[in-house]
């Protein structure tokens, strides 16, 4: 689950709360401070970008300062990476070395000796 705290202008937090509560599967509660909302969601169902777009569609103007843009970019990247990792099949780490061994054996390399075994040993 992803949890975020979003500041809202005075008097508009109830409107934002109502707008976000319309989205099924999203848990929205008033935050610890007067102008904040606590939002909890699964990254498989929602993303911060989707929630911000829902607020914009509801008529809200979100902060666009450089700091907020950087934080958004980091969260967008993190959520996308989480979704990608969840959707990817689990790797078989213990057997992965066998693939490399087979490939190595099938390709010529510098430590191959064409001398027959009986001629390699000095008697």
Task: Offer a concise description of the structure.
The chain has 123 residues and is α+β, with helices and mostly antiparallel strands. The protein has a domain at 2-87: Alpha-Beta Plaits. The protein is built from five helices and three strands; from the N terminus they run βαββαααα.
Task: Describe this entry's structure for a reader.
This protein is an alpha+beta fold and about 120 residues long. It has a domain at about 1-85: Alpha-Beta Plaits (2-Layer Sandwich), CATH 3.30.70.100. The chain is about 50% helix and about 15% strand. A 3-stranded antiparallel sheet has the order 1-3-2, with helices on one face. A hairpin with a 5-residue loop joins β2 (about 25-30) and β3 (about 35-40). The longest helix is centred in the middle third of the chain and has 22 residues, at about 65-85.
């Amino acid at each position: 689950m992803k949890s975020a705290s979003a500041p809202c202008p005075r008097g508009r937090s109830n409107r934002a709360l109502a707008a976000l509560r319309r989205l099924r599967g999203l848990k929205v509660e008033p935050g610890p401070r007067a102008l904040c909302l606590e939002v909890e969601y699964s990254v498989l169902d929602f993303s911060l970008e989707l929630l911000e777009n829902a607020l914009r569609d509801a008529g809200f103007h979100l902060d666009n300062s450089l700091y907020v843009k950087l934080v958004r970019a980091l969260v967008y990247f993190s959520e996308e990476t989480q979704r990608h990792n969840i959707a990817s099949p689990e790797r078989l780490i213990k057997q992965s070395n066998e693939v490399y061994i087979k490939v190595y054996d099938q390709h010529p390399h510098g430590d191959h000796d064409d001398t027959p075994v009986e001629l390699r040993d000095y008697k």
